[in-house]
Design goal:
Blueprint (H helix, E strand, L loop, with lengths): L2 H4 L17 E6 L2 E5 L6 H14 L16 E6 L2 E5 L2 E5 L1 E2 L4 E2 L5 H13 L9 E7 L5 E4 L11 E7 L2 E5 L9 E5 L4 E4 L8 E3 L14 E7 L3
The structure holds 2-oxoglutaric acid and manganese (II) ion.
Length: 226
């Protein structure tokens, strides 16, 4: 990282943690930004809330319409949950595993998502869905667009917790070679506007240990579905 971009990150003592970095922003494409370490200060609260969601709606490996079992385990909270099965991809207000509505979106989830969106230039973000992705070593997400939402005016807000991952972020065509961005604990990616339908994915997770999550990465992806 260039010296100028590195300066000033080590002011975590302001937040009482001498190891913590102050957040900074990294624009990656028109309408797309990585808010580095933005969620660190609330990571513990996010993880505690995530555990409660998972207790009510356990992580599961969904099957794609093509019949492949996804390597990433998923669950949801909020009004709508993203699901996949042999019939296709869709948003469903009911968890098909339990027949009950998805757990409500925890307040801290909404706060972090709204703040991140506003910081990235998308005020008044009102997500109705939070897809929670659990990556164990080897799990990956192939290049795709988030396009099951009826409202494409709202951005996607994506929070990384735990083990680092390589985020692949390309253009509006699948054929465009994606750039690779390491995502760390507390990083928040926001993409919308001209980048809303950018192809993106996550490279296979490397083995590791993170003090906050152990051997896994948790990603929270917030969407306005309609
Ligand atoms: O895990 C990530 O960082 C990205 C997740 C994602 O692209 C998705 O859930 O659609
Ligand atoms: Mn996605």
């Amino acid at each position: 990282m260039p010296e100028a971009a590195g300066a000033g990150h080590l002011s975590g003592h302001l937040f009482g943690d001498p190891e913590a970095e102050a957040p900074w922003d990294e624009a990656i494409a028109p309408g797309a930004v990585l808010l580095r370490r933005h969620a660190c200060a609330r990571a513990e609260a996010l993880l505690a809330a995530a555990r409660e969601v998972v207790a009510a709606a356990p992580m599961r490996h969904l099957v794609t319409p093509g019949g492949q079992t996804m390597s990433v385990a998923m669950t949801n909270c909020g009004e709508w949950g993203w699901v996949s099965d042999r019939r296709g991809y869709r948003y469903d207000p009911v968890d098909p595993a339990s027949g009950r509505p998805w757990p409500p979106m925890p307040a801290v989830f909404l706060e972090v998502a709204r703040e991140a969106a506003a910081r990235a230039g998308y005020p008044d973000f009102a997500p109705q869905a939070c897809l929670m992705n659990l990556y164990r070593p080897g799990a990956r997400l192939t290049l795709h667009q988030d396009r099951d939402e009826l409202d494409l005016a709202a951005p996607i807000v994506s929070v990384s917790l735990g083990l680092p991952a390589i985020f692949l972020f390309g253009g509006l065509l699948r054929s465009e070679r994606p750039r690779r961005y390491p995502l760390q604990h507390g990083d928040v990616a926001v993409w919308g506007g001209p980048s809303r339908l950018a192809f993106h994915g996550v490279a296979p997770l490397a083995e590791g240990h993170h003090p906050a999550t152990g051997a896994v990465r948790l990603n929270l992806t917030f969407r306005k579905t309609r």
